[in-house]
Design goal:
Blueprint: H1 6-32, H2 38-43, H3 50-61, H4 64-77, H5 83-105, H6 111-118, H7 121-155, H8 159-174, H9 178-209, H10 216-226, H11 247-264, H12 267-270, H13 278-299, H14 301-311, H15 331-337, H16 343-378, H17 384-412, H18 414-441, H19 447-470, H20 472-477, H21 484-489, H22 493-514, H23 536-539, H24 545-566
Helix pairs in contact: 1-9, 1-16, 3-9, 3-13, 3-16, 4-14, 5-11, 5-13, 5-24, 6-7, 7-8, 7-15, 7-16, 7-17, 7-18, 8-16, 8-17, 9-10, 9-13, 9-14, 9-16, 11-18, 11-22, 13-24, 16-17, 18-19, 18-22, 19-22
Length: about 575
């Protein structure tokens, strides 16, 4: 039954009023403070604690894509899809050690600002416009549409109304600025984790009932016995899931490139840490890394549980799509519908928490890029108050554009869209990651190399997507066609990410070496080869022994998990 009962709505409303009330209290408290600078509004400069940064990073990252699509992939592929989450935990350590220090020591507010200081204003403006379009057309719209689809699946409320409601609630939070977003995210994540763990427990308990037992542990053991193939982390070439997760290639290559781009070069993710001091930011990122380890328990195990229940004769009609075909993406909404009254509303609140937080983060980041990197460049004399007001107007306009674009997403479809978005990210990430990574680690990289690499990356992105679209009938039917473009279109997305990254690095290095050196005075402090080691920042200890120990433990835990389920 895809409807919420009165008790569910009551629980849900209590959740909303708690979040909204807390956000309003933070907003009014901030208003009483004398700091009304734009960077305080967009970054919550100096006011976010390590635990607020960590929870906000997770809240911004976890959305309907994880709950719906990753659970669906758990149903189809098993625990292997969790490698995205666990490898992200390792990536966050690299971001905390190498990326964040450069950003904070140079008071970087946005990713285009870094490109402006490290290279030039032309590159910054081009990437600002590119990111703004990407966030609105891809990130915002996909979260909005898939989120509305999830709420519709568990409540029966009209899809459009779900979409408008999500946008409205998220915009209320985002208009309060980064401080409101950051601290309300703490509550959001609490609901998210609690609701997710409850769903996982009940799903595993239902699995245990198939064997005449009860409890989460018994359910997990029964899943391991009945579907051992769903607990292998590395797929062999003869596996039907190999194209989606191509063995060690994805773990050792493609996933690192995408993750470094997402966690280290992505405005709406890094923005959480850009307003803090280095020690607080590093601790917050490390906290987020540990929370990442928990995510597969919340989003992947329910999908595997639904698979086991399905293979044992349950959920035969519930998992069918409108076309009467099995749709794994229905796994999580179906499991939610099995929850008792009241608890269903609580878990729906957890799902809503993830959606609103992700949307608010995208809204704020789009607003920040537009205001700081585009509008302020055109109108440099605007006051801080005017910039904040422009940011709020930009947020509203961005929401409207996202809603207007959503019908196109609806036509694409949930499961197809998710896989498509993953592929697109694999093509976008390599040149951007190369420009950022080389810019941070090698002082010799210049603006000529950066802009050449980005434009060549854009050309190859268009060529790849165009080839995929042109040869889609042949690819779908398995028909082989001779020619370079077909071969180019059928290269596995993870392999393509590695190829594009190597190409981007070689191109960037080559162009840098044959063109003039950058102005090292202008770029001082923006790369590790050109740092002022005598500065106060480098003399201060920005990490603790506990941070180091916890980082080592985190690395060992991820390696242990991967080795256990691989062996």
């Amino acid at each position: 039954m895809n409807t919420l009962q009165i008790a569910d709505y009551m629980v849900f409303l209590v959740y909303f009023f708690i979040v909204a009330g807390y956000g309003y209290w933070i907003y009014k408290r901030k208003q009483t403070a004398k700091n009304s600078a734009s960077h305080d509004y967009f970054l919550a400069e100096g006011s976010l604690t390590w635990w607020a940064i960590g929870t906000s990073l997770i809240a911004s990252n976890i959305s309907s894509e994880q709950f719906i699509a990753m659970s669906g992939n758990g149903f189809k592929m098993g625990l292997a899809i969790a490698s995205y989450e666990w490898m992200s935990a390792l990536t966050l350590i690299i971001v905390a050690v190498f990326f964040i220090p450069v950003y904070l020591k140079n008071k970087i507010y946005t990713m285009p600002q870094f490109l402006n200081q490290r290279y030039n204003g032309d590159i910054a403006m081009i990437m600002a416009i590119f990111w703004l379009l990407l966030y609105v057309i891809v990130n915002l719209t996909s979260i909005l549409y898939l989120g509305a689809l999830a709420i519709n699946g568990i409540s029966g409320i009209n899809l459009d109304l779900c979409m408008y409601g999500l946008a409205f609630f998220a915009i209320i939070i985002s208009l309060g600025g980064m401080k409101v977003i950051g601290y309300t995210d703490v509550i959001q994540v609490v609901f998210l984790i609690f609701g997710g763990l409850v769903t996982t427990y009940l799903a595993l308990d239902k699995v245990a009932e198939l064997n005449g037992q009860h409890g989460m542990v018994n359910g997990f053991n029964y899943m391991m016995n009945q579907s051992g193939d769903h607990f292998h982390m590395i797929f062999k070439k003869d596996s039907p899931n190999f194209p989606s997760l191509p063995g060690l290639t994805i773990l050792l290559g493609g996933m690192w490139i995408v993750n470094l781009n997402y966690w280290g070069c992505n405005q709406y993710i890094t923005q959480r840490a850009l307003g803090a001091d280095l020690k607080t930011a590093r601790t917050g990122i490390l906290f987020a890394a540990f929370l990442k380890l928990l995510m597969p328990v919340i989003v992947v195990l329910p999908g595997i549980a639904a698979y086991v229940i399905y293979t044992k004769g349950g959920l035969q009609t519930e998992l069918l799509g409108p076309d009467g075909v099995l749709n794994p993406d229905r796994s999580y909404p179906v499991l939610l519908n099995l929850l008792p009254v009241g608890l269903k509303g609580l878990v729906a609140g957890g799902l809503m928490a993830a959606l609103m937080s992700s949307l608010a983060s995208v809204f704020n980041s789009c607003s920040t890029i537009f205001t700081i990197d585009i509008y302020k460049k055109i109108r440099p004399n605007k006051s801080e108050t005017q910039l904040i007001n422009i940011g709020k107007i930009a947020t509203t306009v961005i929401v409207v554009l996202g809603i207007m674009w959503s019908p196109i997403m609806e036509k694409i479809g949930g499961g197809v869209m998710y896989q498509y978005l993953q592929n697109v990210q694999s093509y976008i990430a390599p040149p951007v990651t190369a420009v950022f990574l080389l810019g941070i680690t090698w002082k010799r990289v210049n603006s000529d190399a950066a802009i050449t690499t980005l434009f060549m990356g854009l050309f190859l992105l268009i060529l790849r997507l165009g080839s995929e679209i042109y040869y889609q009938p042949q690819i779908s039917s398995g028909e082989m066609v001779s020619g370079f473009l077909f071969e180019f279109a059928t290269i596995n997305f993870a392999h393509m990410a590695i190829i594009l990254f190597i190409f981007s690095v070689v191109l960037c290095v080559s162009v840098s070496l044959i063109t003039a050196e950058p102005d090292y005075v202008k770029t001082r402090g923006l790369s590790f080869g050109n740092l002022d080691l005598s500065s106060k920042e480098f003399k201060e200890k920005t990490y603790s022994t506990v941070d180091v120990i916890l980082s080592v433990i985190l690395v060992l835990m991820v390696i242990g998990i991967l080795m256990y389920f691989t062996g």
